Amino acid sequence: MSTHQGGPALPQERRLVTEIPGPKSRELLARKQAAVPPGIGTTLPVFVTWAGGGVVVDIDGNSLIDFGSGIAVTSVGNAAPRVVERVSRQVADFTHTCFMVTPYESYVEVCEKLNELTPGDHEKRTFLVNSGAEAVENAVKVARLATGRQAVVVFDHGYHGRTLLTMTLTAKNMPYKQGFGPFAPEVYRVPLAYPYRWPTGPENCAEEAAAQAIDAINKQIGAGNVAAVVIEPIAGEGGFIEPAKGFLPRIAEYCRENGIVFIADEVQTGFARTGQLFACEDEGIVPDIITTAKGIAGGLPLAAVTGRADLLDKVHAGGLGGTYGGNPLACEAALGVLETIESEDLVAKARRIGEIMLPRLRAMQERFDVIGDVRGRGAMIAIELVKPGTKEPNPEAVAEIVRRCHAEGLLVLTAGTYGNVLRFLPPLVMPEHLLEEGLAILEKALSA
Question: What count of other Cβ atoms lies within 10 Å of the Cβ of residue 284?
């Protein structure tokens, strides 16, 4: 193996020198199985030594094309230079004090940036936590305290995390909820506008789904009892479902009319992933609270809750926080991420990825009737696989295609309530030749 390290200087090439996984990865997998519980799954058991640009390099020397970005985390690329520089400098200064004990400037600077960049020109406040689930849970806490109400409304196919509350908010039972009950109270689920599967067709989806959701809230809960509506602008783990146009604005309008806090969960969709800085900008949605994580800090654990100042200022001192929330290393990483997004115009690069991927995938849909739907925006793209001639989910085809892609050195991820969606989250810095090569591997797997 060569001696170069990770980051964008890595050769941007697919290179297979062993089978996937190779012998060294298999040895480590055996160690993992002996030390780690099976509940911690592994999509592709290759153990990574370096990563950067659009590739990950494993311990056996294989260089794989990365269509996963650590589940939308390394959007600016692994070991992005601005992130490395800032974190390296900070780790030599101090690693932790706890912001609630003795604060530091980088935390404040991240909050100022998020107040500026998130949708809306109203006065905002931001605080930092460790994970997307923690951000969503804190957003609900704020909404409940600020409104004096308890009920929380979520949507079919939604995913919001694995803590008790966010697991309750999540729609899919297996693997996220199975056996982990009882769940948190005062959580209610209503229909999502899922165009591909809407019974009367995509043209009726937005209006009918919104009407059904609002009717269910009014009849089953009462609008005056609802603290918050929590929704992903594009449903992530549910299968990259982009709600039919008009659905989100109608739900946001209903929230405004009834004093309900509209919480946009942008954990997976934020930070340029969809070809806009935040996905809710697509239809001009201005959330009362927005939660962010994943792509915010280039791989370091950080998440944020940003919202209307009049809501967040209602919380008493000590009601928010946590030991590690806004760790100085993660804050410096986040500032490096934001610098990279701006300096390299990654919003435009995300749109370019969509311009390349969507036509190629739609051409594959014409060839392969196993592809029922192609959808997504920017660099958040998915195909839904069905049994030919039907809309019956085809998770078996997904499993086989994933196996073939992985064997050829293309890392792909799955998703979907029915386990039948292939999702693509390439780093926004991925070279176009790797994107094209990855699509060719996918097409070969579909042909087989």
Answer: 10
